[in-house]
Amino acid sequence: MSEPLRLILFDVDGTLADSQNAIASAMVAAFEGVGLSVPSRAEVLSIVGLSLPQAMAQLAPTQTPAVQAELVAGYKRAYMDRRLAQGAGHSPLFPGAAETLAALNMVPEYLLGVATGKSQRGLDALIASHGLDCFVTRQVADHHPSKPHPSMVLTALAETGVEARDAVMIGDTSYDIDMGRAAGVCTIAVDWGYHPAAGLGADHIISSFAQLEPLLQQIWKA
Fold it and tell me: Is residue 1 pLDDT above 60, yes or no?
């Protein structure tokens, strides 16, 4: 009997890509652009994973919707300008990410996907800059409610025809893990991202990409 298809979903920022400096610098430009004091780096990193409107509502809760919308627009402009200037160096991949994706992509029953708070444009640019052509489903903020709503994961399951029991969500924030749990899939937290992994309530935690493939084999053998 053939193995069922398995879906491996990855968050991007803080999980696959080390975009901390890129996010922080774009946030500085956005807030300074409207004359507001810039949130602390810790505050900025705490909202990574949320869609931008929700992120700005958390970072600038006393501002009007119009100002929050200006912050979103300013962030997008600054982020894109820096990405165009820096190319692949703008958001480098974490050590082992590219090699692990390549190895998983060679397993016939594995399907790889992305569920990210990034925009379609931002994700497409990152994939192109790093040559990551392995994702069969790409869920982005443009088409879904913000994490932790399960829409991204549920849509990825529907697109691939994979059952929830045969899927995992891998991420670094509470938004990723809560989204995966809400969709009924197994959750894996990485401990190199933006929220402390031990407090996320994930089913599993890994501290390097080298641990991922053996863990997946263990999960699906069980």
Answer: no
